[in-house]
Specification:
The protein is mainly β. The protein has 5 helices and 23 strands. The strands form 6 sheets. The protein has a 7-stranded antiparallel beta sheet. Strand 16 (242-245) and strand 17 (248-251) form a beta hairpin. The protein is globular.
Length: 360
């Protein structure tokens, strides 16, 4: 929120555009309690203050709590933005997703590193060791695995240490999304997870139960963010289409929403002309969601814009995060709440909020 210069989360009714609830956590207070994360990754001299912190991919629970991070310890706050708990053992980053058992899949960065120091050395900062972690609603770790370990143990070590121009690459993975699988189909099993790895321009289907990579996709996407399951055989991918040219990392035209069909093994673009027409081109970040009726929602993070397209490709609305001073501020991975489970959460939360108001 550029007017107050602090990060907020708003729950918005997309029929009326009324703001139903707002969260505005006190980062100064929360992070002031954290001396350091293990290994010195996080120190209270960090710039994650009220004026600098973001709220990344906030996840709503039915009691109005939010789970999120800011490339920081993982936090859970209540409906009044008060701290419920903070998990400061590692640095957490990027996406936060809930599975159908109510547990959370979050991206984590380890130090000390999980893989042998012969690969990485042992000093903090020489390597970014991204991992996937499943935690309970109370913060208990239920599953924990380094993606670099997954590569090495699945005969994909060559992808970690053979990139770059004769030099060691400290961030070969760059995990940015974990999407849990909620039911068995011909192509995946409940308990599997899809992983988006930006610096590999790769999406993986991984089975934690057996530590197996079931499928890996590299195709019509570059430096992608966000992978979603559409149905029993298709996934969608938000393709930044950003490429490292001689003059830097730039979007080569516009962003794409890519669909991969496991039945036909073919890739296709979704509503691509609409993205061209609206000049959607975030270099980093960004998310997309294709709804069951074919509508498409995009968070164009770098440019503080959220766009909603009808299934026919027409633009239904856009939100621009512009402050009164005219400047546009970042959006950090909004999400649209549309599933029966999501809507039940919202209804329960708003009902309790109303009851609390009258009781007070």
């Amino acid at each position: 929120n550029g007017d107050i210069e602090e990060a907020v989360v708003e729950l918005v009714d997309l029929k009326s555009f009324d703001v139903l609830h707002t969260w505005n956590p006190d980062f100064d207070s929360f992070f002031g309690k954290v001396d350091k994360v293990k290994g010195g990754q996080w120190e209270k001299t960090s710039n994650r203050t009220d004026k600098r912190a973001n709220i990344a991919h906030p996840l709503l629970t039915e009691d109005g709590s939010l789970l999120f991070q800011s490339d920081s310890p993982l936090l859970k706050i209540d409906k009044n933005s008060e701290l419920e708990w903070i998990k400061d053992d590692e640095v957490y980053h990027h996406s936060n997703e809930e599975d159908n058992e109510g547990n959370f899949w979050v991206c984590v960065q380890y130090y000390p590193y999980k893989i042998d120091e012969k690969y990485t050395g042992n000093e903090y900062g020489t390597f970014l060791d991204d991992g996937i972690r499943k935690i309970s609603p109370t913060g208990e770790i239920l599953f924990d695995k380094s993606v670099s370990e997954i590569f090495i143990e699945n005969d994909m070590e060559y992808l970690l240490f053979s990139v770059g121009d004769r030099y060691f690459t400290r961030d070969p993975i760059h995990l940015n999304d974990i999407q849990p699988v909620e039911k068995d189909t011909k192509h995946w099993k409940k308990g599997d997870v899809f992983l988006s790895l930006r610096h590999q321009s790769m999406v993986l289907l991984y089975r934690p139960e057996t530590n197996e990579i079931i499928w890996k996709g590299t195709g019509k996407f570059y430096h992608q963010h966000d992978v979603d399951i559409l149905d029993d055989s298709r996934i969608s991918i938000f393709d930044n289409n950003s490429k490292d040219f001689f003059n830097g990392d730039i979007v080569d035209g516009n962003n794409h929403v890519v669909i991969y069909d496991f039945e036909t093994t073919e890739y296709s673009y979704y509503l691509n002309q609409s993205l061209i027409n609206e000049d959607v081109r975030t270099v980093t970040g960004g998310r997309s969601q294709i709804l069951p009726n074919g509508d498409l929602v995009i968070d164009e993070s770098n440019y503080g814009r959220i766009l909603y397209f009808n299934a026919n490709g027409s633009l239904k609305f856009e939100f621009i995060n512009r402050a009164d001073n005219g400047n546009i501020y970042y959006t950090k991975w909004s999400r649209i709440l549309y599933t029966n489970r999501d809507l039940a959460k919202v209804r329960k939360f708003l009902k309790k909020k109303k009851e609390d108001f009258y009781n007070d």
